[in-house]
Amino acid sequence: MQTEAQTLCADCWGQLTFLGRPCCDACGYPFEYEVPDQTLCGACTREHPPFDRARSALVYDDASKDLILAFKHADKTDMTRLFAKWMKMTGSDLTNACDVIVPVPLHWTRLFLRRYNQAALLAHALGKITDTPVMAGALIRHRRTPSQGHMGAKARTRNVTGAFRVAPKYRTALKGKRVLLIDDVLTTGATVRTTAKVLRRIGVSAVDVLTLARVVKTQT
User: Fold this and answer.
1) Is-contact 205 178, C-beta < 8 A?
2) In angstroms, what CA-CA distances link 12 with 2, 5, 95, 180?
3) Mean pLDDT confidence for 140-154
4) Residue-wise pLDDT tens digits, 174-209
5) Hey, what's the torsion of the CAs at 76, 149, 139, 212, to 10 degrees?
6) In this model, does residue 145 exceed pLDDT 70?
7) Alpha carbon distance 41, 26 (integer Å)
8) pLDDT higher than threshold 60 for residue 114
9) Does domain 10-214 have CATH number 3.40.50.720?
10) Measured between alpha carbons, how far apart are the two ends of the chain, in Å?
């Protein structure tokens, strides 16, 4: 894998699965066939998520997992700008519409140990290439939550409920704004659903979600 020039070798590139249309207009779940614009998947038809739209650049699978985990946990941050370009390519409708970019925060104790928040790195890189303001401190993770790696959807929702709040000094600035929420991986959506609800409570006009990757499981 080549990282010095912010690129990938041909073999690594060829193994990645990039996402785009057709997909659910709300959660971004990929469809295997062409559908009309604004079509919703079964899950979003039954209950629309608290955010407006979610999009992801990559499928989180065996091909992308090592790349993302190295970025997240092993200080391999030299690919940040390339990742942000991929996110912009997939989520151009979202980046064009948003007023401000906000990353999902880490709890301060986890930030101290890791030394950086990967979502904030992506947010700042995306902000630079789209010329969009970034409010990295707008959300606060005021309760440290256990790692969600082996949790199911319901457990993840319980884990993050009540864990976030909007920093008081940003509430006025965010009111009425269209927010683009940034995270690294969308798994069950528990974290972005919770943070979207928190943002809506203080009066933002809309919340879109853009992540580097997402888990794709068969929906029922």
Assistant:
1) yes
2) 9, 14, 27, 29
3) 63
4) 999 999 999 999 998 889 999 999 999 999 999 999
5) 50
6) no
7) 8
8) yes
9) no
10) 37
List, for residues 33-56, the tens digit of each pLDDT value.
898 888 999 999 999 999 999 999
* β-strands 206-214, 100-103 pairing: unpaired
Among left, alpha and beta (phi > 0; psi -120 to 50; other), residue 107 is: beta
DSSP state letters, the chain = ---TTS---HHHHHH--B--SSB-TTT-PBPSS---TT---HHHHHS--SSSEEEEEEE-SHHHHHHHHHHHHS---TTHHHHHHHHHHH-HHHHHH-SEEEEPPPPHHHHHHHSS-HHHHHHHHHHHHHT--B-TTSEEE-S-----TT--HHHHHHHHTT-EEE-GGGHHHHTT-EEEEEEEEESSSHHHHHHHHHHHHTT-SEEEEEEEEE------
Tell me how far apart the alpha carbons of residues 66 and 120 are, in angstroms, rounded to a whole number. Answer: 20
**Contact by Cβ (8 Å): 94, 27:** no
pTM: 0.88
Which residues share a beta bridge with 141?
Answer: 164
Residue-level pLDDT at 3: 39
CA distances from 93 to 20, 25, 201 (A): 11, 11, 24
Q: Which amino acid is at 104?
A: V
